[in-house]
Amino acid sequence: MGQGKKPEGKKRVASRDGFRREFIQFLVLFFALWLFSYLLTKRYPGFIVSAQLLVAREVEFILNLIGYKFSVTGSSFLFETAHGGENLVVIAECTGIYTSIIYFSIVGAYPARAGEKIVGLLMGIPSIHVMNLARMIFISLVLYHKRELFDFFHGYLWQIGFVIFMLFLVILWMGRIVKGGVQSRTPVSTDPAED
Amino acid sequence: MGDWERIRSRYSIGAILLFLLRFIAASALLYLLYRKLGSYYVQLLSHGAEPLLSIFGHSIDIDRALLVTEDISLNTIVFLSLVIASAGTPALARLRSALSGLAILTAANILVVFLMFLSVYEKSERLWTGTEFMNLTINFFLPILLWFMLIQVKSIRRTDPS
Fold it and tell me: Is the Cβ–Cβ distance between A123 and A177 less than 8 Å?
């Protein structure tokens, strides 16, 4: 360190090459995990249907608890609102399953220790589920009370809200749980000036 | 300290919360703007897919395309909000990154519209599955990936102390 410009420069280039290699590894692993999990949901569509029914039962439970009137068939709701009947159907995208899989793939592919990954998943997946449930309840209430704002909140909370929440979880996990040092197991520089 | 470490070390709880607040403010404003002017962007995507479909001997149903594209074009708002919320990056660098990212997302969105229509016209379940996978990736991962590569990594490199 500080012994000359050339070795320092070489070290920096080697470090960048190491980062580039790890980043490409991360992307390859991420896409492999994401594609594999996505194809599993296609291979076993019953899993998605179960997730839809689970979310529908939870929404049903909470709306019942706070005293709203509705009827439910499978994962399809008919709300009895002051302005008439309103339909809400819990589809695959409403279950948070794809966001969960993408989060799982990011955590799985990131260079961290197995224990840190497990903590990340135990923290993240339930949080995404709870966030999704809160979103479903919120847009149901919007449907009851402010129908004209439904499209606004549905669009905003679905994609924009979900992406930032997932990113928040990833950053929180990377910044607070992952201690670092895993990548140092893979030497990024063979420059003797380092020693 | 490696690049992963440097990126990680930036995120204290306070920094994360401030970033989130800036993101929410930027995305709410952009979303409001999108509700007013987004139809132009949606038309751009639909018309962009038209020449690709014509290569395969199909034409685009603009009304249906407008309905489809409305749902898939919010990724640009997510990306732009991430760029705006990234304080500490010079304005010009952010502008350059925003334009590059926007161009990539727009091209990806046009490709999704094209593939959606092609899979319907060709009655291909496999192509539809692939398109859905691509669409989910573009909506939920690509904005984050572009932000990370165009803002975070570049910013780390700019502030590299060595």
Answer: yes
Count of domains forming chain B: 1
Contact flag B24-A164 (C-beta cutoff 8 Å) = yes
Q: What is the DSSP string of A131-154?
A: HHHHHHHHHHHHHHH-GGGHHHHH
DSSP assignment of B87-103: TTS-HHHHHHHHHHHHH
Q: Residue A156 and residue B133: Cβ atoms within 8 Å?
A: no
Domain residue spans in chain A?
A: 5-194
The set of residues, in sequence order, having a beta carbon less than 8 Å from that of A161 and lying 6+ positions away, is: A131, A135
Between residues A83 and B131, the one the model is more confident about: B131
Prediction pTM value: 0.85
Of A102, A180, A184, the CB nearest to B8: A180
Chosen from B1, B3, B31 to mutate, greatest number of chain A CBs within 10 A:
B3
The complex's ipTM works out to 0.85
Tens of pLDDT, residue by residue over B14-35, are 888 888 999 999 999 999 898 8
The domain in which residue B55 lies consists of 3-158
- B 140-159 near A (Cβ less than 8 A): 140-141, 143-145, 153, 157
Residues in B 41-100 with any Cβ partner in A closer than 8 A: 71, 74-75, 77-78, 81-82
